[in-house]
């Protein structure tokens, strides 16, 4: 089996799992429409346009989350300093404090829940729940909302299509939808405005998430 075939199988399995999880949903029609749109958005092609694609990592959520955490880290080797982080905070309507310490953690665990990325900067906490093709776990959005409630976080649901989590019942209205392509465009715009040249690794990552 080729790398492309394996990646396509992974995409199909992820969407199938998410559809099966919707059997208990009270809003099946809208969720089915969302999944259909996501399925149509998949571009079936062989070969990879980036190194991550060639390595079969372009849909690996853990790898992509680590890449995003690195891109938002002012100390990351992306050669853009705090600019990607500040642009992201401004997009979320959060204050930017240039000299504030920044703490970014991947797969932070609290009680029986786990957050893909937890970003703390300038008194603000941002929790990013990232999806590529995997479905949501039972009450996933509400559990994240509950277990980090003491920090009054901004909750970001990061996907390929920009939909909100269907497991957000108690937390409905607390989530901000964002796409991977939004992040890529945000960093591209930031680089253009600042005149900074992202590192080769940053350009590679931006191209990868910009094609999701």
- Helical amount among residues, as a percent range? 40-55%
**Pattern of helices and strands:** HHHHHEEEHEEHH
Tell me the strand percentage band.
15-25%
Q: What is the number of helices? A: 8
Record the strand order, biggest sheet: 1-2-3-4-5
Task: Give the termini separation.
Answer: 22 Å
Mean pLDDT: 86
> Major sheet: size, sense and barrel closure?
5 strands, mixed
Q: What does the radius of gyration come to?
A: 17 Å
Structural class computed from helices and strand pairing? alpha/beta
Can you tell me the overall shape?
A: globular
Please report the total strand number as a whole number.
5
Low-confidence runs: none
Structure in words:
With 212 residues, this protein is an alpha/beta fold. The chain has 8 helices and 5 strands; from the N terminus they run αααααβββαββαα. The protein has a 5-stranded mixed beta sheet. Strand 2 and strand 3 form a beta hairpin. It is globular. The mean pLDDT is 86.
Could you outline the blueprint of secondary structure elements for this entry?
Elements: H1 3-21, H2 28-41, H3 51-54, H4 61-72, H5 83-91, E1 102-110, E2 113-121, E3 124-130, H6 140-147, E4 154-159, E5 175-179, H7 180-194, H8 200-210
Parallel strand pairs: 3-4, 4-5
Antiparallel strand pairs: 1-2, 2-3
What are the main properties of this structure?
212 residues, alpha/beta, five-stranded mixed beta sheet, 8 helices, 5 strands
């Amino acid at each position: 089996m080729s790398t492309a075939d394996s990646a396509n199988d992974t995409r199909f399995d992820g969407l199938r799992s998410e559809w099966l999880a919707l059997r208990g949903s009270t809003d099946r029609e809208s969720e089915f429409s969302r999944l259909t749109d996501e399925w149509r958005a998949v571009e079936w092609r062989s070969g990879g346009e980036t190194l991550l694609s060639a390595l079969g990592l372009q849909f690996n959520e853990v790898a992509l989350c680590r890449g995003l955490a690195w891109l938002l880290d002012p100390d990351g080797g992306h050669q853009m300093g705090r600019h990607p982080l500040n642009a992201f905070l401004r997009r979320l309507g959060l204050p930017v404090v240039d000299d504030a310490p920044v703490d970014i953690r991947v797969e932070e665990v609290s009680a029986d829940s786990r957050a893909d990325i937890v970003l703390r900067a300038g008194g603000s906490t941002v929790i990013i729940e990232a999806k590529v093709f995997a479905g949501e776990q039972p009450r996933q959005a509400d559990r994240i909302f509950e277990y980090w409630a003491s920090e009054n976080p901004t909750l970001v649901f990061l996907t390929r299509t920009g939909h909100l989590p269907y497991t957000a019942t108690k937390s409905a209205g607390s989530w901000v939808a964002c796409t991977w392509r939004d992040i890529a465009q945000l960093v591209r715009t930031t680089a253009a405005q600042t005149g900074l040249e992202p590192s080769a690794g940053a350009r590679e990552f931006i191209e990868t998430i910009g094609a999701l």
